Amino acid sequence: MNFPRALTFAVVLYVIGALLLFATGYRLDTVPSFLSYIVLWVLMIPAVLVFAKWYFHSTVPTAKTGLFLGIVTLALGFILDSIIVLLFASDITLSSFYALVYGDWKCILLALEILLLTTYAGYEFDTTYTDIASQK
4 burial class (0-12, 13-18, 19+ CB within 10 angstroms)? Predict the structure, then answer.
């Protein structure tokens, strides 16, 4: 696993997700709306797959590597969320932020989606279902 590349992947997805959330009206002291999550669920599919293709360009793709990429992405997202709340949200505590956002089933579904997509990307990009003969 290329850890610096995995961190770059995670930061890029985090920025994309944050921009999408803020574009749909999300603020740090509220739970993201259902519309925000729908936008995230839909647009994270191509984002994860495109950037996973970039990640696996220099790393051997396997389902296990894809799963680890997803875990690194979620862990770094959690850390970045914590830092942003500590720095920019003076009227909300970390525990209440975690309860608002991470306690929501929609956030858990987003995390599962990211794990499944990165695992699938590693699985697919290892030529399991790719017809190599048609690429020549």
Answer: exposed
